[in-house]
Amino acid sequence: MSSSFSTSHDDLTTDRLALQRWSIAEAAAVIDNTRSAYWADDFPADGDRVIANLFEQHPDWLGAYGHRLIIERDSGLTVGSLGLFWPPSDGNLEIGYGIVASRRGRGYATEATRALAEFALTAPDVHTVSAAVELPNPSSLRVLEKAGFHHVATEENVARFRITKPDLDRQ
Length: 171
What we know:
Number of helices: 5
Structural class: alpha+beta
Number of strands: 9
Shape: globular
Strand content: 25-35%
Helix content: 25-40%
Radius of gyration: 15 Å
Strand order of the largest sheet: 1-2-3-4-5-6-7-9-8
Order of helices and strands: EEEHHEEEHEHEEH
């Protein structure tokens, strides 16, 4: 299996990013709209606020196989978030991601998604990571394709993708 990430104390790193687990304090700052000097000017985005508000209902999302902040290693700024919707269902985990507008087009979403999917597939009883993307979002479709996901279905206005352990073994 190819490895595009490394782990250290529950954090994942890639060439350009650190994928750091959310803390309760960071979630509270997002919810309360308390700015941090370590956030990009346009962080948090709407999706980040939604996730921060769901941690109380889904405490497992704060675990090792949950949600993470995306941090540029060069600047130290938080530029988005991504996460796994834990626990798995029949060996499948869903992934979601978002990068703030000021940092889009740099390949961060692809890099982070690939690393978190590879990490997710190391979890016990997980054999598939899936994602659903609305068809009017071609950039997100490309993120998944570049991250090694395969298109498996289209239903109404949503494309469904997945990556499995055997997919990574072949790459």
